[in-house]
Amino acid sequence: MKAVGICGSDVHYYKHMRLADFIVKEPMVIGHECAGVVEEIGNEVTHLAVGDNVALEPGVSCAHCSHCKEGRYNLCDEMKFFATPPIHGSLANFVVHPASLCFKLPENVSLEEGAMCEPLSVGVHACRRAGAGPHTKVLVMGSGPIGLVTLMAAKAFGSPRVVVVDVDENRLKMAQELGAHEVVCVSTRIEDVEKEVLEIQQKMAADVDITFDCAGLEKTMRTALKATRSGGEVCLVGMGHVEMKVPLTAAAAREVDILGVFRYRNTYQLCIDMISSGRINVKPLITHRFGFSQEDVVKAFNVSAMGGSAIKVMFNI
Fold first, then answer.
1. Considering only CA atoms, which of 131, 112, 9, 130 is closest in space to residue 59?
2. How far apart are CA 317 and CA 296, in angstroms?
3. Virtual torsion, Cα 28, 34, 38, 41, nearest 10 deg
C-alpha cells in the first residue's frame, strides 16, 4: 500500500466502533480508499506485473449469486469489503487482493489519484443510476467529499448546470472552485425548507431534473423531493438517517422517482480514464497528508473527524 484515504465510515468505526448494523467486535484494520504497487503476483495473472501501480476496488463479491450474475455485484449478500467488519481494511503495509480488482494506473495518474477512484466511484455510479447527461440539470445536496465527487461526475457526464447546497460556507466555496454553477447555503431547520426550495429553484433558473442527496438526512430529502421537477428523479446517496419522515405521497403524485445507491459497480476503469484524460481533477480534494506512524494515524483521524477545512485526508505509506 502507498496511498490510503480516510472515509467518513472509517471515522465512524474509529469513534463509535460500529456503523449501522456493522459492529466492530475484535481488532480490525480500517481503510478502503487505496492504491499501491504490485509486490507479487499469482502464476495465472497476466495483466499485471511486479512494480505496477494499481488502484484497488475494495469489495470482493461471491460471483455466484443472482445479483452477481446480473452484474449488480455491489448488492451481493456475501460481499467482503475492506474495513466492513469483520473484514480487515487496507491501512497497512501490504494486502492480498484479487488481481481482477487491481486496476493498473497509467503513468499520468498518481497513487493518490488512484486511491481517489474509490470515492469518485460513488459519484459516477450515482450519475449512471440517475441517467445524468447533457439533458439534465442537477442539484447536489451536501458538499462533503461524496457531494463534491458527485458534482464533478455530473459535470463530466455533461450536465449543463449543477447547483450545490450545504450548511457550510467553506465547503460551498470548494464546490464553486470545482465548477458548481451556483451554491445555496441553507440552515438545519426543517421549517426553512419551503423558502430554501424557492431559492434553489431561482438559482437553478430551470427545472431540477435530478437531485443527488449526498447527506441522507430528513431535511435534505424533504428539500430534494420538493425541489425536483414533476417526473424528475431523487437519488439517495448519503445515509445520514436510518429512518426519516418525508412527503412521499406528494412526490409520488408528481411521479418523482426515488433511486437508491449503494457503493458502486464497474466504475474503476472509467474513473481512471476520466482522471487520466483530465475530465476530472481529484487533486484539490486532498487537503491533508500524513505518514504511517502511530502518531500520524491518530492525528489524521482527529483532523478528518473535526471536518472544517479537511475534505480528504490521505496517508502516504
1. 9
2. 11
3. 60
Q: Cell numbers of 120, please?
A: 469518485
The CA-CA-CA angle for residues 124, 59, 264, to 5°, reads 20
Q: Rounded to 5 degrees, what angle do the CA atoms 74, 8, 189 make?
A: 105
How far is Cα 116 from Cα 78, in angstroms, rounded to an integer? 25
Q: What does the alpha-carbon distance between residue 288 and residue 308 come to, in Å, rounded to a whole number?
A: 12
CA 184 to chain centre: 21
- The type of residue at 112 is E
Question: Per residue in 122-177, pLDDT tens?
Answer: 999 999 999 999 999 999 999 999 999 999 999 999 999 999 999 999 999 999 99
Residue 135 buriedness (CB in 10 A; 0-12 / 13-18 / 19+): exposed
In angstroms and rounded to an integer, the radius of gyration of the C-alpha atoms of the chain is: 19
Q: What is the pLDDT of residues 60-103, one digit of tens each?
A: 999 999 999 999 999 999 999 999 999 999 999 999 999 999 99
Nearest to 14 by CA among 1, 32, 29: 29
pTM: 0.96
CA distance 103 to 111: 11
CA angle 83/68/119 to nearest 5° reads: 40
pLDDT at 20: 76
Fill in the DSSP letter of residue 190.
G
CA–CA separation, 122 and 33 (whole Å): 12
Residue 291 vs residues 110, 191, 202: alpha-carbon distances, Å: 17, 45, 45
Q: How far apart are CA 186 and CA 197, in angstroms?
A: 10
Task: Identify the H or E element spanning 209.
Answer: strand 208-213
* pLDDT value at 21 more than 90: no
The three three-digit cell numbers of residue 182, written as one number: 451556483
